[in-house]
Fold this sequence. Notes:
Order of helices and strands: EEEEHEEHHEEEEHHHHHHHHHHHHHH
Number of helices: 17
Protein name: Protein kinase domain-containing protein
GO molecular function, one term: protein kinase activity
Bound molecules: adenosine-5'-triphosphate
CATH topology of the largest domain: Transferase(Phosphotransferase), domain 1
Domain Protein kinase: 15-299
Low-confidence stretches: 311-320, 335-393, 468-474
CATH superfamily of the largest domain: Transferase(Phosphotransferase) domain 1
Structural class: alpha+beta
Mean pLDDT: 83
Binding site for ATP: 44
Strand content: 5-15%
Helix content: 25-40%
Shape: elongated
Distance between the termini: 86 Å
Number of domains: 3
Radius of gyration: 29 Å
Region (Disordered): 297-323, 345-391
Largest sheet: 6 strands, antiparallel
Amino acid sequence: MAHDYDHIPRRLGNYWLETRLGSGYSGSIFRAYNVYTGEFVALKVQDVNHECPTNRYEEHIYPLLQGGEGMPKLFASGVQGKWHYLVISLLGSSLDNIYRNNGKKPLDLRSVCSIAIQVISRLQTMHNHEVLHRDIQLGNCAIGLSPNETMIYMIDFGFSKQYIDQRTRRHIPDSKQKRDFLGNYWFTSVGVHCKGKVPSRRDDLEAAALMFIHLLTPGGLSWTRNGVPKTDEQHRRLKRAKETARPEDLCRGMPSEFEEFLRYCRRLKFAEQPDYEHWMNEFRELAHENGFTEIDKFIWPPPPQQAKPARSQPAPQRPAVTTSEMENVLQDLAKLQLNNRPILADQTNVPAAQATKPEGKKDGDVIDLSSDSSVGNPSQEPPRNLPPRTPVRIKKASRLEQLRIAISDATDNAGLATVVAEFTTFLKETGSSKTLTKEGFAFMDALYKQLADPSVFVQPLRTSRTRSTTTEKPAGPQPAYVKLDLVARLRREVVRAQDNRALAKMVADFGAVTNRSSGRTITKDGFAFLEGLSSRLKALN
Ligand SMILES: Nc1ncnc2c1ncn2[C@@H]1O[C@H](COP(=O)(O)OP(=O)(O)OP(=O)(O)O)[C@@H](O)[C@H]1O
């Protein structure tokens, strides 16, 4: 049915329509103002006879979301003549506009981390209000107008639905029956789009994951490159491409968080509550490790010193498998009861198991997954037709955790000195990021404990109640010079420290001042302090 949007009256209710901001399948949206207060708003107008009355659905959803961060306000709604209208907060550009105006080039890592944090948070808000969005896409995320231009808002609730049955208070049921696809071609999850599953919270998150990956991919996700499908055959091809794309291929060259997030979304059960906080923290930490500050704000265009192209930076190697997947594999392996059954159906071409067992290995020995399978038998050629093995990337967090354990296990100053030196070198070599992450602080806590008194319980350095000499100063970020002065002094004094207690106090001061500095980065003086600390520990052994 054609709808004559050119004949919408200039005034609807108390609002005067100014300019058209956009039009979609279901209606038009205008910038308008309240004729009494002069306040600018956005007005969504739809023909009351529209075959898909999305304005009516939105009118029902908006009140459920009022007051939530990043949710537009609904000021009024009504019908005038043949027009149904919704009056909502006027916002700025959508992420789709931003992406297009940027020439559809991949966005920088800072921007994508910040989008990820905010979009996940918006979904958390919506889901906490028992609402699924069901149409996550770039065009449905818009930034605010000044002074809210760093906030991403969620818009277009025309496909939204409550996932808690209001009568029974239970989660809506899953179904084996294939449903017609509802959502958008680019980002709707594989389950909903390609397999006809019932959408739930996990699918909102998966769509978000695909959106983040799209923003980091030159040319965008492969199935978006031929435009909107016009025939059933084109749509079938698009679905096949989407369904068969492996996360590791989609995310090649990106920081591993994106692949891990996509895999996580796809592993979620139908009614499972996603761990939003965990993933917001993962993206915050990734940003932190790359030296990006104020990451909870979406700043467009990105601050020049932080606008590193996402692909050209030394992204950590993506793991062949994630830690949790590896855990699952190991658990499944442990559960296998092979007894005397053949490992392969046809063993005629497989050397006897005993013959390939490395010297000295007994049944029940732990399999060393990090070593190459040919190590036990140097003459053995690696098997053909197997993909090359990618080393599992030890994430910064895991390495720091190893070092924390090592520092807690050290029994004398020489041992402490060695681990401090390793910690310093590791941080120096972690790409451009010299940020002290929460694992870094945990290391400093363990070091402090060892130096002060290995038998006492220690308040973590990242709480506001530190033992440092700077505790009298108010908590919160400090001007850079305070940090620079103190760290430079620590660097000078560490070489003269008389005992471990003096060193402990310095470590506490260093931790406290780094925690309160913006970015929590370790400066040149900071590294010199850590190196001096290692040398002094050796001298005091
Ligand atoms: N509150 C708003 N303030 C400013 N611009 C907006 C607002 N809401 C929507 N827009 C603009 O109008 C476009 C269409 O809005 P929306 O998605 O809500 O309408 P729709 O008719 O449901 O569109 P579609 O059919 O494309 O889903 C958005 O992409 C955005 O650019």
